[in-house]
Amino acid sequence: MNTKVKDSLIVLQGKWKTGKTTLSPTNQDLNQDLPVFGSRVYCESYSLDHAATEEGGGSTVLKSNDTSSAIVAQASSVPLSASSSAEEELFTLMSRRKNESANYSTLGNLLFSVLIIQRARNAFHSGRTKPVEFREKQLNQLLRLYEENVPEMLTALSTDLRKSKQESLMTEIEYMKNDLKNTIHNLREWAKPEKPPKGFVNMLDGVLIYNDPYGVVLIMGAWNYPLQLALLPMAGAIAAGNTVILKPSEVSPASAQLIAKLMPKYLDQECFHVVLGGVPETTQLLKEKFDYIFYTGSTEVGKIVRRAANEHLTPVTLELGGKSPVYLDNTADLEMAVKRIMWGKCINAGQTCIAPDYLLCSKQVEKEFVSKAKTILKEWYGEKSKESPDLCRIVTDRHYQRLVGLLKGGTVAVGGETDASEKFISPTIIVDVKPTDPIMQEEIFGPILPVVNVESAFDAIKFINSREEPLTLYVFTTDKKVRELILSQTRSGSTCINDTLMHFKPLAFYIFTKSSKDRDLLINNVSCGGVCCNDTIMHLTVDTLPFGGVGNSGIGSYHGKYSFDTFTHKKSCLVKDFNGLGEKLAASRYPPYSEKKIAMLGFLLKKRTGVSLKYLPHLVMFGLGIAATFGFRAIAQV
């Protein structure tokens, strides 16, 4: 098929009628006509190779059959021209239909995604995202989006997850506003070329690292924090100078629709776009070439994203999950530890990637923990926790049924109430749990906390290291040696000491103990994304800490400056002048070679430890200046 046409080319696979030609189907009904202005449109399938064309200035309308199945739209090798008035008209029409209809068709979303990817690429290549002033303006606009639409955000979050006002403000809105303000304040400093240390051989040269944007970035958000997990990485991508295709999760539809509604009102419509939809749209997006992909979600889907990215050698950040363990010993303040652990487990109904997944403690600590947890949960949520306005609901019936199935292992010591009509599960603690029980085989992602008994920090390390790396490791202890032991002997994405969630292989590991010996033992011997000692979740709020996983819990990190770095390619640059002194120093590299030149190269290239050469060029020039001054004086006296 000849694809060299004057106007844009869009390839469609599916069943269509154009004039007298009927084409073969793939799979999903489509109830709208597709206008194509001033372009050739090739329609092809596995069995047919027909082309429907309308040349000249008129337009063609492709009408779908009533029984037509899912249409897959993909861009051809012929780029869409951003300057084409026909394509502008098509894009405008598609945008209007998209905004007017909440039930926008699968084909509409797929074709729309094809158009916007090319528009985003054209915008990036035009250079409009490179100036820091443009980035600052867009970040300020994103901040305005948050400041001016809080009521709508609260409504969307309540609709999707029945989040309370305080929880929504704390975890989704104020958190994001603070991150944006921090990014705006520091952006100019972050964007400056970096000046790394120089060696002796380059003392007269310019050695720089430029922070280059990747290009067109695909960001795929998650449903559990549908605003934060979509727009926080997007802020980093904007700060770095990229254009963005944002795909919110379809599992939180109210939040996704709100993002799609608000973004075009505040951000540059050439550079930043939203694609709505489910699996078909996501599948098609992953077939396209992006310059960077940022995905937040499950490990299973993360592997699919990674495989798709590998086809184009596209770099990725994968923010996944994992069973984040909590280690609690008898040195910790138990009442405070119970509050912090149960808060981390109950916030968002446990639907948090770094929520404490299971508790490791002795049998004696378990008894005291359960007793105090009963009292504290009653204080927080009352006798009938289902009536509390402060507890979220499980996001879908499928997730609810999965969690109910996990309640069958072990013995319910606290909670256990369920209501399918509301997708409600009360905060629950399960004891007598075996490592082989179903609840210990997958990330729970709900308000259920199983307790596994261990006798020491060494047993906890052995248990954690026998499983996949968690995103976060939580350590509750006051014993510094225990903390350092755990940190050095485990692997995780991050660690939080004596708290949960407030920091950001397990994704997280929580340790509660006063023993520094046990704390160090655990920190040094467990692999996880991060560690939080004597709290949960709270490490997430520290924007100077990178947040990310290791192994099955993810690849890469972000938050604060780390978000900027994630979406930035570090471009090395060496700048040499044509000065005689520098050329003299480097002349030993030229043939003919000799022992003398080998010795000179060895001297120049030798690594000099303990000596900073940062100011050596200035000292050399100062010395040369002094020598020149005395030389001129001597000449003048003659």
TrEMBL record:
Signal peptide (residue range): none
CDD domains named in the record: ALDH_F3AB
Keyword Oxidoreductase: yes
Catalytic residues (positions): 319
Domain annotation Aldehyde dehydrogenase: ranges: 116-501, 507-572
UniProt GO cellular component terms: cytoplasm
InterPro entries per the UniProt record, alphabetical: Ald_DH/histidinol_DH (IPR016161), Ald_DH_C (IPR016163), Ald_DH_CS_GLU (IPR029510), Ald_DH_N (IPR016162), Aldehyde_DH_dom (IPR015590), Aldehyde_DH_NAD(P) (IPR012394)
Entry keyword set: NAD, Oxidoreductase
GO function terms (MF aspect): aldehyde dehydrogenase (NAD+) activity
Any single GO BP term: aldehyde metabolic process
UniProt family annotation: Belongs to the aldehyde dehydrogenase family.
UniProt protein name: Aldehyde dehydrogenase domain-containing protein
Organism: Timema tahoe
Biological classification of the source: Eukaryota, Metazoa, Ecdysozoa, Arthropoda, Hexapoda
